[in-house]
Amino acid sequence: MGGARLAPDGAQLSQRRQQLNTVEVFRTRRDEAERLTPISCDQVPAGHRDCDIQIVVDPTVRYQRIRGFGGAITEAAAYTLSRLPERVRDQVITAYFDPAVGHRYTMSRLHINSCDFSLENYTYVSPDDRSLNSFDLSREERWVLPVVRQAQTVAGAPLFLLASPWSPPDWMKTNGEMNNGGKLLPEFHSTWAQYVVKYLYAMRNRGVPVQAISVQNEPAATQTWDSCRYSAAEERDYVKNHLGPALHENGLEAVKLLIWDHNRDLVFERAREVLSDPAASRYVWGVGHHWYGSEEFQNLSTVHDSFPDTHLIFTEGCQEGGVHLGQWFTGERYGRNIIGDLRNWVEGWIDWNIVLDETGGPNHVGNNCDAPIIADTRSGELHYNSSYWYIGHFSRFVPPGSTRISSTDAALSETAASHVAFETPDGSLVTVVMNESDDDLRVEIATDHERSGSERSGTVLELPAHSIVTVVKK
C-alpha cells in the first residue's frame, strides 16, 4: 500500500491533536450481551503496560478520504418493509440512517430494471420499443422510491446513490432473456446507453437524483437471475463509444461512472484493460467491487498504485445461503472485509440488502441470502444480526470527509488482531480493532505525537475473543 508522510495540517489542527485527552471505547462481543456498548479503558504512557498487541496510530501518514457507508434499497428490501407495521418500518430506517441513534448511513445502491432481489423480471419499457418512448419508472414508486425518500429525510441530507443495471431488456440481448447471462447485442449499444440516460433523468425528475452508476453488475458472471456479460474489452469499448459519450452529450457528465462492479480477484485485470485506454478512462470515475469468492484485498492497492486518480468503492456483499440468525461468523466476515478494504484505498462501503424477510428474500429465483436486519413479516419482529453491529463500529464513528491514517502493530503474542484508523473532520482519532480468535487479548493503542513534540499516550483495553472495539480519542 502506498502512502505519503505528510506534514501536520496547520497549527490549529496540530494543537487539537496535542489536546486529545477524552477517550471513548465501544465494544461488541460474541459471548456477552455487548452491542456497541461503552466500556472503560486505561490511559497510560505508551509502552509501559503488559499487552498482547501494541498498535501505533500516526495521523501524519494519511491515505484516502472516506466517502461513507450504506446499504442497498432493493425492491425486495422495500417490499419487505411495506409488509411491516409502520412503527417497525420506521425502526429499520432509523437504525440505518438516523445520524443521532442509527448507523449514520450516507450511501445506498439501487438497481436499474430488476435484479434477483426483485419480485420478478421487469424493465421500464414495452417489449421491442426501440424508440424508448414507453419508458416509465412508475413501478419504482410502488416500493423503492418511498423508502429512499424516507431514508433521506431521516438522514437529514441526500444520500449518495449508486444505480447498477443487472440486465437490459430481453429483446436487447443475445439470449433473448434477462436471466442466464447473454450479452448486449451490438445494434442496441446506443439504445441501452440512452435507456440509462432516461433512467437518470426520470430519477432526477422524481426528486431522487442519482450521483453514480456502474456499467453492469457482475459482468463476468452468467447468473440464473438477471445478468449480462461483458468482457474487459467489451466494457471498455461500450464506455468509450456509447455510455460515456451519452452521459456527456446529455448534460450528465457529473454522474460518476464505475466499471467492474464484481469480485476482487480480477479487479486489477479489468481496471487495467479499461483504464489504460485514455479514450475510455476519461469517462471513468471509479472501480466497484464485491466480496464473493475472494479476500485478496491487496488487489485494490494494485489498482490504486497503477491508477491513483481512480476511486474505489465496495458496492456489494452479503452472506449467502439464506438467513443465519444469531450467527457470529457473519459479523466477523463484515468486519474483516471492511478493514481489509479500507486499508487498501477503498473510499465507500455499501452493503447489499438493508433488510430481508424471514426467508432471506423475496428473491424471484430463490437466491435467498442474509441481511444485517431480518424482519419477520408474520410477527413484525426485527432480528439484528451480528453483521449489523459490526458495520456500526465503522459507520457510526467514521463520517464522510474522514481520512484514513496509519496504524501499525507489534504483536507481543502469537494471536493477532486486525485494525484500521482514521482522523475525522473535527480532528478526532478513531481506531477500530477486531479479534477473530478464540483468545482474549489485551491491546494498547498509542497515538504517535512525536512529530509535534509530545510523548506518545496509550489506551489499554480488553479485546475478548470474537469481539470488535471502536476507540474514539477527542
Helix content: 25-40%
The CATH class of the largest domain: Alpha Beta
Number of helices: 12
Oligomer: single chain
Features:
eight-stranded parallel β-sheet; alpha/beta; eleven-stranded mixed β-sheet; disordered N terminus; single chain; 474 residues; TIM Barrel; 2 domains; Immunoglobulin-like
Give a concise summary.
The protein is an alpha/beta fold and 474 residues long. It is built from twelve helices and 22 strands. The two termini are 27 Å apart.
3D structure, described in words:
This protein has 474 residues and is of the alpha/beta class. It folds into 2 domains: 4-65 and 402-473, Immunoglobulin-like (Sandwich), CATH 2.60.40.1180; 68-395, TIM Barrel (Alpha-Beta Barrel). Helices cover 27% and strands 28% of the residues. Strands 1, 2, 3, 4, 5, 17, 18, 19, 20, 21 and 22 form an 11-stranded mixed beta sheet that branches. The model is unreliable at 1-18 (pLDDT under 50).
SSE order and pairing:
Blueprint: E1 4-5, H1 10-18, E2 23-29, E3 34-39, E4 42-45, E5 53-65, E6 68-72, H2 75-82, H3 86-97, E7 107-112, H4 138-142, H5 144-155, E8 160-165, H6 189-205, E9 212-214, H7 232-249, E10 256-263, H8 267-275, H9 278-281, E11 286-290, H10 298-306, E12 311-316, H11 329-342, E13 346-353, E14 355-357, E15 373-376, E16 381-384, H12 386-395, E17 403-411, E18 418-423, E19 429-435, E20 441-447, E21 457-463, E22 467-473
Parallel strand pairs: 5-20, 6-13, 7-8, 8-9, 9-10, 10-11, 11-12, 12-13, 14-15
Antiparallel strand pairs: 1-5, 2-3, 2-22, 4-21, 5-17, 15-16, 17-18, 18-19, 19-22, 20-21
Helix pairs in contact: 3-5, 6-7, 7-8, 8-10, 11-12
